[in-house]
Design brief:
About 22% of the residues have low confidence. Helix 1 runs parallel beside helix 5 and helix 1 runs antiparallel to helix 6. A hairpin with a 5-residue loop joins strand 13 and strand 14. The chain has eight helices and 18 strands.
Length: 360
């Protein structure tokens, strides 16, 4: 066994321990923040007007266009309770159930039904309309108790809503996609003796463009590199060791570090094809809006890069091959936190279902 193999095998436990430590630290900080929030009043804080670009440089804070502004996520208010002494107790607020049709990021089309319809009859028809272009289409149904849910077998529905996603990373919903949606939706509703309440195309296009502008402004991906100080590394040995320490190898050659709940914390590229035998540079990438701040993806990625550099005789560098100092990394970390705060304020928190849908 070579020195390189021994070094690489030692990486596994160290990096996994670091990732776990970061997650535990973030859980502790989150718990303390909640305690502070309920123990004292806080003044409003003006957020920084800068956020981080791919190279770590500051840029102006991205904002939603006025027409795309929306209120915070709605809560269902429970009626106030009265105890035995006659005192009125505080009302309890319960978060709405998360649904695949979202007023903020979808164009929602109400569909009136002449009579209740079973889910078994609806599903074969609704499943013929899953996408228009690159935009997903979802349906929800209203039960007799007024609750909305994804249409399912066994359900009886008194109304429907269709939702087409207004934007993603690639583009905004356009006129051709919207026209296709309405044409296909009318075919389905005609078969159901139902009537869709179709929104005005101009208004839908305006909202789609505004939402796509938001996606473009917040589409931040941060990368750091580990560059060899001497000889290049053997790919086969490198990949095997990285997989043993927790990275998953994808068909496109990327390695991803799972977050433990089905998502990705950050990814790693060898910067060469699988047919190559050696590489002298590794790139770690954080898809910022897709990772919840509680997971501290940036901190875990930097910890991984530092340990790779120490074990492999490399240096942590930026895309311009300049060494990244502790001060620079600390500054970028602060900018990432400010970026997350701004996403929270927009009601599209990083790592949320909304963010995962939009930044896809």
């Amino acid at each position: 066994m070579t020195d390189l193999q021994v070094s690489l095998m030692a990486i596994g436990g160290t990096i996994v321990a670091a990732v776990i430590s970061y997650n535990k630290w973030q859980e502790y900080k989150a718990k303390k923040s909640v305690q502070r929030a309920f123990s004292s009043d806080h003044d409003d804080v003006l957020m920084s007007s800068e956020t981080v670009s791919e190279t770590g440089a500051a840029r102006h804070e991205p904002t939603l266009e006025p027409e795309a502004e929306v209120p915070d996520i709605a809560l269902d208010d429970e009626p106030a309770a009265i105890d035995e002494s006659g005192e009125v107790q505080a009302a309890v607020q319960v978060p709405q159930r998360e649904l695949p049709v979202d007023d903020l990021i979808d164009c929602v089309i109400p569909i009136a039904l002449d009579a209740p319809v079973r889910g078994e009859k609806l599903l074969p028809k609704l499943q013929t309309l899953r996408h228009v272009g690159s935009k997903p289409v979802h349906f929800i149904g209203q039960r007799d108790d007024g609750v909305w849910e994804p249409v399912a077998h066994g359900g009886i529905y008194y109304g429907l809503r269709a939702g087409v996603q207004l934007a993603n990373r690639s583009s905004a919903l356009n006129e051709i996609e919207y026209s296709e949606l309405i044409m296909r939706l009318r075919q389905i509703t005609d078969e159901l003796d139902a009537e869709p309440d179709v929104p005005d195309m101009a208004e839908v296009m305006e909202k789609a463009r505004s939402l796509h502008q938001f996606v473009a402004e917040y589409d931040a991906q941060l990368s750091v590199n580990v560059h060899s100080n001497g000889a290049a590394w053997a790919i086969n040995t490198l990949l095997g060791a990285l997989e043993r320490q927790g990275f998953d190898l994808r068909p496109d050659g990327r390695l991803v570090m799972p977050d433990g709940e089905g998502g990705i914390l950050f990814s790693l590229s060898t910067n060469v094809t699988l047919a190559e035998e050696i590489t002298s540079r590794l790139t770690l990438l954080l898809d910022v809006p897709r990772v919840a701040p509680q997971r501290d993806g940036f901190g875990a990625m930097i910890a991984c890069a530092r340990m790779l550099a120490a074990r492999l005789d490399g240096t942590v560098v930026d895309d311009g091959n300049q060494a990244l100092s502790e001060a620079t990394l600390s500054e970028i970390g602060e900018q990432v936190n400010a970026f997350y705060s701004q996403m929270d304020a927009s009601t599209i928190p990083a790592g949320s279902t909304r963010a995962l849908r939009l930044f896809s």
